[in-house]
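User: Please predict the structure of the protein below. I'd like the answer in structure-token form so I can feed it into my own downstream comparison script.

Assistant: Understood. Taking the following sequence of 355 residues as input:
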Amino acid sequence: MYTFEDRNGDSLSLRPEGTASCVRAGLEHGLFYNQIQRLWYQGPMFRHERPQKGRYRQFHQIGIECFGMSGAEIEVEIILMSYRLWKKLGLESELSLEINSLGTSEERASYKEVLVEYFQQHAEQLDDDSSRRLQTNPLRILDSKNPAMQTLIENAPRLADSLGDESSAHFKQLQGYLTDAGVNFTHNPRLVRGLDYYSHTVFEWTTSSLGAQGTVCAGGRYDGLINQLGGKQTPAVGLAMGVERLVLLLEQHEWSAEKPLAYIVYQGDVAKAKAIQLAENLRDQLPQAGFVLHCGEGSLKSQFKKADKTGAKLALILGEQEIEENKVGVKFLRERKEQQFIPREELDEFLINNG
């Protein structure tokens, strides 16, 4: 937590994540009791720890939180939502999914006793950070990136051995849903989340392209948080993704800019007004195609040069004759074709066929 005193001596704490804030807002406005909610947010967060690659004092997250659903199907739903985003961005081959189950709070409490006893027997091998966590949140020791401690961590008792039948069945069901959906994943028994309100399923999307801190998106189930903050016990699950980390991954790709379908040129003030109307009408009728309206003065020759620079496939021409005849001139900028004059009522279909 980034906590400091301001000029008036007041202690301020900057939010490190959005889940708790979302829950507090939901409690304040009565969103959770006997209701199902699917919420999302985005905004700046803050961390006090030393920034690493892709990590900043102030960073931005997009979060999804779902309340009132206890089954594994809502967990796989938000995982698949993130997977669909990776595919849309062309990043699915660079991100790997790791999952684990933390069980119930009672199962975790039992496991913590076993884990603390194990690490106390090897206290001399713990680094300073892990020694501190042994007293506060021993599960976080399993997430240590210290190479000198990896053998010790590998030999630690496994949480899976402390799970009851219900928790094990829940986790098995999640794995089945992911397999059926064609999503590759790894069961990482050492995966824990940094915040102690998680239960049952936790997951991370990671990459090897950003150094040791390779988590891009993470989340899990947190059925006990609303109760901790004063509400009634409510099942909840969510995820958050780091915008800056996504940008770093995207910057490693070569991207070709989308090119407009047509550049609209004109001659005269009357044609200019008609051109503005034409551009808006085409954007309404053909939202997937790009249309650039020439702005400013210039001869037709200079306008055609600007049209060519945009990479547009066509130039749409409006002059006095075209307006009088209710037609639009069409000049092919990428093909050797004769210029055509298309009746306005036929232009949409013409553009669809030549798009």
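That's the full token string. Residues 255 and 312 are 17 Å apart (CA to CA).
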